Amino acid sequence: MFSLVKALFSVHVSLQGLVLGVFEKEGEEDSHHLTEAAAGFDQSLSGKLSELLKMWDTLMACGSGPPLKKGKSRVFYGLHKDFPCVAVVGLGKNNAGVCGAENWDTSKENIRQAVSAGCRSLQDLDVNRVEVDGCGDAQSAAEGAVLGLFQYDQLKSKKKTKVTAQLHGSANLVAWEKGVVYAEGQNLARLLMEAPANHITPTAFANIIEEKLAPHAEQVTINKRFAWIEEQQMGAFLSVSKGSEEPPVFLELHYNGSPDRSQAPLVLVGKGITFDSGGISLKPSSSMDAMRADMGGAATVCASVVTAAALKLPVRIIGLAPLCENMPSGKATKPGDVVKAKNGKTIQVDNTDAEGRLILADALCYGHTLNPRAIVNVATLTGAMDVALGSAATGVFTNSDWLWEQLHKASVVTGDRVWRMPLFEHYTRQVTDCQLADLNNIGKYSRSGGACTAAAFLKEFVTAPHWAHLDIAGVMGNKDEIPYLRKGMSGRPTRTLVEFAAGLAQYKNL
């Protein structure tokens, strides 16, 4: 039946669908509670939608079909001449609000999940235009639609139907458009992370970001550095890049949307390993292909700057992305080699697969020269973080309670959660007790507290009072954990970074 319906619809050049939301029943006698847009649509049909939903409830009670649960969709056909197919989606409980146990706004997450499911069910029918119910939170609805419809199929002969989503009815259009921009920012990070490493080299990465920022040239300055890296004496960064034939790039993005041109910038630093073989400390071949996304930190940071510029946020942001490949060759760094970072500290490289902290060390040193109000670095840094938190949340290590509070507050809004991790002196001693140099890049006990010792290593290159390290290794990809994202690279936590940057506008004196 499904294939027949799809075949019938596919003959249309342009097919429009509609996504409407319904809340759970609040009592035994209640039917589904329609959103404002759904109720208006139902009224225009003289209650036909309500009748169908009641009929569905009756069939469900008889065991003839699954219930319309939270985050699920049910498609009805032939209800309206303008919308040949209408997806009704379950929003869960009305006004669920912030959940302290889950550390997110449940209502927003329910809307994202439900709208994503509805849009994808219509996309499977080759619908190419969808109007979406704002569901009481148009920004979350837009995020669900745009994030849910994204799929990286640029290199496939047969592609998914491209769907244009727009707001239905009289909901808040400004909020909808904001949600679209937030989601498109995350999708940009997903695109960069998903693309093969032979397509996204350091130079290609920088060129794509430059192209994305071109419409905002009056507010953005872009520097793509090559020989400059040596002039800056970034010995740790260069030690990683020299094993590859691809030249390294130090990408520097300046966005100034603040009316106060003297405002100190928020500095975002992203790890940009466009492919990580492990170097001489070669990784196992299993799943090595996923290391095309080891530049996820740079992808989310640069996508955040692009999004901030698109939103015209009244803040000043500098994005830094040291970009290179980590490859084995006759020129590659060898285990046991000692290199010198920009701040003069020497590093014994006992494992060349712990390379992200090396390129970040030099980038953090440079970031301090920019008079930052705060520094946040983002990196797919350690498998240990994936072991600790899995895909539930980004791990945050910070020397600032204020900075943690701002990041956490932003993550509750976006649903892309963060969780605070320890920066004990206990871990610092493990990286500073080194035989040949000031620091060891893996520490005394390489398997114990690996995410924490990596953070302690980075802390040795930080003097700023407000610094945070976000380890995103656990949230790099998505199987089915985040229902409104398809399987693949996630682009997390781009929206949280943007929401955090937007929140800084209220802090004028920091």
Written description of the protein model:
The chain has 510 residues and is α/β, with parallel strands linked by helices. 36% of the residues lie in helices and 20% in strands. It has helices at 2-10, 36-44, 48-61, 106-123, 138-149, 173-194, 202-213, 228-231, 235-241, 296-311, 356-368, 383-389, 401-414, 425-432, 450-459, 494-503; strands at residues 16-23, 33-34, 73-77, 85-90, 98-99, 104-105, 129-133, 164-168, 220-225, 249-256, 266-270, 272-276, 316-326, 337-340, 346-349, 374-379, 394-398, 418-420, 439-440, 467-471, 477-478, 488-489. The strands form 5 sheets. Strands 9, 10, 11, 12, 13, 16, 17, 18 and 20 form a 9-stranded mixed beta sheet that branches. It comes from Anabas testudineus.
What would you say about this model in short?
With 510 residues, the protein is of the alpha/beta class. It contains 16 helices and 22 strands.
Write the layout of secondary structure elements.
Blueprint: H1 2-10, E1 16-23, E2 33-34, H2 36-44, H3 48-61, E3 73-77, E4 85-90, E5 98-99, E6 104-105, H4 106-123, E7 129-133, H5 138-149, E8 164-168, H6 173-194, H7 202-213, E9 220-225, H8 228-231, H9 235-241, E10 249-256, E11 266-270, E12 272-276, H10 296-311, E13 316-326, E14 337-340, E15 346-349, H11 356-368, E16 374-379, H12 383-389, E17 394-398, H13 401-414, E18 418-420, H14 425-432, E19 439-440, H15 450-459, E20 467-471, E21 477-478, E22 488-489, H16 494-503
Parallel strand pairs: 1-4, 1-7, 7-8, 11-13, 11-16, 12-13, 15-19, 16-20, 17-18
Antiparallel strand pairs: 1-2, 3-4, 5-6, 9-10, 10-13, 14-15, 17-20, 21-22
Helix pairs in contact: 4-5, 5-6, 6-10, 9-11, 10-16, 11-15, 13-16, 14-15
